[in-house]
Design brief:
By secondary structure, the chain is of the alpha+beta class. It is built from 3 helices and 16 strands. It has helices at residues 2-16, 147-158, 195-206; strands at residues 19-20, 24-26, 41-49, 52-59, 64-73, 76-78, 80-85, 91-98, 101-108, 114-127, 130-138, 170-178, 184-191, 214-216, 219-221, 223-231. β7 and β8 (91-98) form a beta hairpin.
Length: 232
């Protein structure tokens, strides 16, 4: 009986954060409408957490038009990966948002060919003793094999704490270049913690596997990246 109560409690808790809201209808200009004759799109919202919503939009035919994640619905704030489809069901666009700002875009035509592609990547610099973040638009930035999640796993698995001052906590920012062969080369410290921690951050970059090289103007190009490494 105790196990049954525990399972039931867990089920109820999970459903508290995975609750579908009412379907919302929109006209062809994405204005909410209650008029059946004006219905063109409809939206289904699933609450995943207190500040995370999974949203799916559909054409009036029932075919999916969009899927993505919002951190707020009033006002709408997009955060994360979004996918869009043509009415035919073929992929139209992929966009990654951070706080409602597109940082990565890939558009397709109905034949599946890429027609437009760009990314906005941050480059951290120190100017007159102050940290400055500049942004650069690229056709495609270098990709760690497996993506961001795999990069975080690599850092967690390979990061080492120096024996001296192992109780120190903080962040080291390393700048390095990914060449056209996908090698992470020339790591340098942009924001330092201590010489020993800086050395470990450099060693981490040197252990990295081959990346997918960046592209600009349809050609492989070397790209400089900045990577914050947290020692907690």
């Amino acid at each position: 009986m105790k196990m049954l109560i525990t399972i039931l409690t867990l089920f109820l808790a999970q459903n508290t954060f995975a609750q579908k809201l009412d379907t919302i209808w929109y006209n062809n200009k994405w204005k909410k409408t209650q008029q059946v004759s004006e219905r063109h799109f409809f939206r289904v919202i699933e609450k995943l957490d207190t500040d995370k919503y999974k949203v799916k939009d559909y054409f009036e035919t029932g075919s999916q038009q969009m899927e993505g994640f919002f951190s707020s619905l009033d006002p709408d704030i997009k955060n994360g990966d979004f996918k869009y489809w043509f009415k035919s069901g073929k992929k139209q666009m992929e966009i990654t948002y951070e706080a409602n700002q597109a940082i990565q875009v890939c558009e397709y035509n109905e034949e599946g060919e890429i027609t437009k592609e760009w990314e906005r990547i941050p480059v951290i610099k120190v100017v007159n003793g102050e940290t400055v973040t500049e942004f650069r638009l690229l056709q495609r930035s270098p990709k760690f094999p497996g993506g961001t999640e795999a990069l975080n796993e690599f850092i967690a698995k390979n990061i080492k704490y120096p024996k001296k001052g192992s109780n120190i906590k903080g962040q080291v920012v390393v700048q390095f270049k990914v060449n056209i062969e996908g090698e992470a080369i020339n790591p340098t410290i942009v924001i330092s913690l201590t010489p020993d921690y800086d050395r470990e951050a450099i060693n981490l970059i040197k252990k990295m596997p081959t990346w997918e090289p960046g592209r600009q103007g349809g050609k492989l190009v070397p790209i400089t990246l900045s990577l914050p490494i947290n020692f907690n």
